[in-house]
Amino acid sequence: MIEFHLDTRSGVAPYLQIARQVQQALRMGTLQADDQLPTVREVVGKLAINPNTVLKAYRELEREGLVAGRPGQGTFVVGTPAGPPPGAYTRLRGGLVRWLRDAHAAGLDDESIVAFVTTTLRDSAEESAA
What we know:
It is built from five helices and two strands. The chain has helices spanning 14-28, 40-47, 51-63, 86-105, 110-129; strands spanning 67-70, 74-77. Strands 1-2 form a two-stranded antiparallel ribbon. It folds into two domains: 14-77, Winged helix-like DNA-binding domain superfamily/Winged helix DNA-binding domain (Arc Repressor Mutant, subunit A, Orthogonal Bundle); 86-129, no CATH class. It is mainly alpha-helical.
C-alpha cells in the first residue's frame, strides 16, 4: 500500500501532493488496478491533515479516471495515467541511476543536479518548439 509524504516547503498544495504521489506510483507500477488506497482516516492519522484535503485528492484522482470509491470498502485503483507502460520507466530508471552516480562522482550535489535537469528540460523543450 502507498504511504503518503508531504513537503510543507514545496509550495504545492497538500491535496495535489497526494494526487501526484498516486499518479507517480501508477506510472512506476507500484500501484496497479484493484489496489486499495489508504482510507481517509489512515491518511489523516499519519499526516495530521484535514480529512477534506484527502477527499479533495481522491476526488481529483476519480475525475481523472484513476480511482473509484466502493461504498463501504474504500477507494481502489481503476486506471492508469496516459503514457508509456511501467516497464519503460524501470528500464529508463537504470540509465538514470548510472547518470546520477556519474553526476555525484563529478562533484554535483542534489540541488545542482535538480538545477541541471530543470534547465536541460527547459532548453530541450525550447529546441523542440523551434
